Structure formats: C-alpha cells, structure tokens
C-alpha cells in the first residue's frame, strides 16, 4: 500500500474528464465479462461477436502503454489507482469498489458482485473475498497515515457469502514498530460472512510518514 | 470445493465443441480487459469502441442465463468450472489457470498474469495471489478425494511477486476428522514469493466420499 498525494484543482478537473472517458469503456467491458459467462445466443452470433471484439481490441491496442499500468502510466493522484483489480475504474475485473472513509479511520464500501465472482453456486468465490479484503485492509493502513506491504493475511469464512449487494469494512487495530495490525470483514444483509486480519510491514529503509488520521 | 463427475465420451465431444466456441469469446474479452487499462488511443476512438462494445453486449445478452452461471447453467462434468474466476474458460476475469495433477496428489499450474492483476507497480496484487491460492488449495483437497468449504486461509507474503510467468502448487498435508489441512505457494523463476495454508471443513450432515487419490 502506498498513500497517494492529493490532486490539485487542475488535476481534479482533468481526472474527472478522463474518468468520464475511460469509465464507460471499462463498464462496457464489464458487461461483456458477464455476458461471456451467461450468454446462450446462437453459435453464429457468438462467432460474429468474437470477431467484432477482436477487431475493436485491435483498435484500442494501436496505441497503448508498453507494459503494465502501474509501471508505465506515471499517473498523478487518484489516477494511480485506476488500474486496480479492486477499485480501478479502468479495470473491468474490478467490481469496482468505491471506498468511503469515516472520521474515526474506518474504511468501508458497499458494492455488488455478479456471476464473474462466483465460487460455489450463487456464492462469492472465497478467493474473491480475499482479494477484496486484502485491498480494503491495506487502505485502512494507508488511511491511518501509515503504509506497508502485506506481510500476512488471514481469512476466516463463517458462512457462504451470497452474490449481490455486500458491504466491506476495515480498521487499523494497532501499530507496533514497523508492523500495522488491521482487521476487517465482508457482510451481507444478515451480518458478517468473512473476517480478515492482516499485518502490513514497512520495508526496511523506509520511515513512517506523519499520521494524518 | 466439490468433486465433479467425469464426463462421458459424448459429453466430452460436446464439451470440446462448446469450449471451442466460448473460449475464443472469453479470450477476446480478456484482450479488451487489458486494452481498457492500457489504451492511449484518441478520445473519439475510445468513444466509438465503447458504443460498439455496448451494442455487442446487447446482442450477447438477448438470450442468457437468468442468473449466475453456477446456479442456472446445470452444466455437467467439467463445464461446471467454466464460470470460475480462476480456471473458467468462459470467465474473462480468470487468467485462466490450467490445473495439472501429479500422481502424488500435487496440484500445480504455470500461468501468466498481466496488468489487470497488478497491485504495486509491476507486481501481482496480494489479493490476486490469495484468489489463486484459495482456488488451487481447494483443488488439492478435492484431488485427494475429500472436499469441504474454506474455513480459514492464511497467506504469507515473502516478497513481491512479479507480473508475467508464474507457477502455483498445492498439496494436502493431513486430514483430521472433518478438517483437511492443505498448503501451497506461488513462485517466480527465483523461488517462492507467497505461501498459503488453509483448512477446508466438511459441512455437518455430509460424509467424505471414498478417497480416489
């Protein structure tokens, strides 16, 4: 986890404009992810769609970052997270989550997941719960003014998590030296389904920035 | 994790044919997932692509499963896994992994991950490592002739995992009553980057099927 600098006013305006362009593209691809799994249209429609999608991908790839987003985009401020598989508005794998920050340091989000995230029938894949929780727990560390890399992550699955509308939250528990201890959960309307705890470790050679929470 | 029945010869032939239709569709959408994050083409090309993709999604959705794949597809044999976010040939979120089974019960896979799976710049998102390991560990339980639902999953991140070519493996450690203990890892060319251990628990009311490994 890294803590990102705030955008300037000019950067905010430009980021809004870029998000209005890239967000709908990713959303259209998200719809295709879902359709790829669920479609039952005739074979010739699927073959035509496949050919059309390959052609469009070619157009989009005519000019692109030479490697991964994080390495090559050099994006300022909030755009640094646009490639994220959890919160990235440019990443169709991401639901995406919109993270909320409470004054007491709690980080939370309400979000929806569909068939692309399915493990057991009708249930969220346990590994997808882990993906979401790893990210939200890291954000809670960042929100506390600390940062670090995930050292250990432990998930306890209380019961199956249904697909649909869910809530996740995380908060920092304590900081001991270079280690930040953080806890969180995923819940449906009836309560917690998955609990998580993690230790984020500040790599040697780094110092904690000033706490801002 | 559930253990799936083998396909009959007729089902295998039909499954091959269906995979040859749906696989390329998902692969085309995977290319679009990557392009959505990395594209730098002009705004008007992105707007046109977005409109075209929305139209194609509409065609694919004209006739589709009414809900999630696992609940509604009633797919026999190996097709049950086609919606999986880790190994699903119909799920563009999945890399997808092709799982290999060694005679001693080891389950392993070599696979590639790109920018859609990125956390820190150039590195696999820690939660994506968790997603992959949860799935492969569950498969190792299944391959041993047991099954169960993930009870706890613990990940230890030794160092950053680079994007690109990776290997994962898992094996069952022991079974105690209703609990199966399983361990696994993700590695790059220089060795293990993430270790995992999990306990899969057979729900009450179920009995272990005969071990087949």
Automatic annotation (TrEMBL), chains A, B:
Its EC number is 3.1.2.2. Keywords: Apoptosis, Cell membrane, Cell projection, Cytoplasm, Fatty acid metabolism, Hydrolase, Lipid metabolism, Membrane, Transit peptide. It is found in: Cell projection, Ruffle membrane; Cytoplasm; Membrane. Its main location: membrane. It comes from the Bacteria. InterPro entries: HotDog_dom_sf (IPR029069), THEM4/THEM5_acyl-CoA_thioest (IPR052365), Thioestr_dom (IPR006683). Residues 122-193 form the Thioesterase domain. Coiled coil: none annotated. It catalyses: (9Z)-octadecenoyl-CoA + H2O = (9Z)-octadecenoate + CoA + H(+); octanoyl-CoA + H2O = octanoate + CoA + H(+); decanoyl-CoA + H2O = decanoate + CoA + H(+); (5Z,8Z,11Z,14Z)-eicosatetraenoyl-CoA + H2O = (5Z,8Z,11Z,14Z)-eicosatetraenoate + CoA + H(+). The keyword Membrane applies. Belongs to the THEM4/THEM5 thioesterase family. This is Acyl-coenzyme A thioesterase THEM4. It comes from Nocardioides panacihumi.
């Amino acid at each position: 986890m890294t803590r990102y600098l705030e955008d300037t006013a000019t950067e905010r305006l430009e980021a809004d404009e870029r998000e209005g362009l890239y967000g709908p593209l990713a959303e259209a691809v998200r719809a295709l992810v879902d359709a790829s799994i669920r479609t039952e249209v005739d074979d010739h429609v699927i073959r035509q769609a496949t050919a059309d999608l390959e052609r469009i991908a070619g157009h989009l790839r005519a000019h692109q970052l030479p490697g991964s987003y994080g390495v090559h985009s050099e994006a300022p401020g909030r755009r640094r997270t646009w490639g994220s598989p959890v919160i990235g508005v440019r990443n169709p794998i991401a639901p995406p989550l919109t993270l909320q920050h409470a004054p007491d340091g709690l980080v939370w989000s309400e979000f929806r997941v569909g068939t692309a995230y399915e493990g057991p029938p009708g249930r969220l894949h346990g590994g997808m719960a882990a993906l979401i929780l790893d990210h939200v727990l890291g954000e809670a560390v960042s929100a506390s003014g600390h940062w670090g890399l995930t050292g250990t992550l432990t998930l306890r699955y209380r019961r199956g998590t249904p697909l649909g509308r869910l809530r996740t939250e995380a908060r920092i528990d304590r900081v001991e030296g270079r280690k930040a201890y953080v806890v969180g959960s995923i819940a449906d309307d009836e309560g917690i389904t998955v609990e998580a705890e993690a230790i984020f470790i500040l790599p040697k050679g780094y110092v904690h920035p000033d706490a801002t929470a």
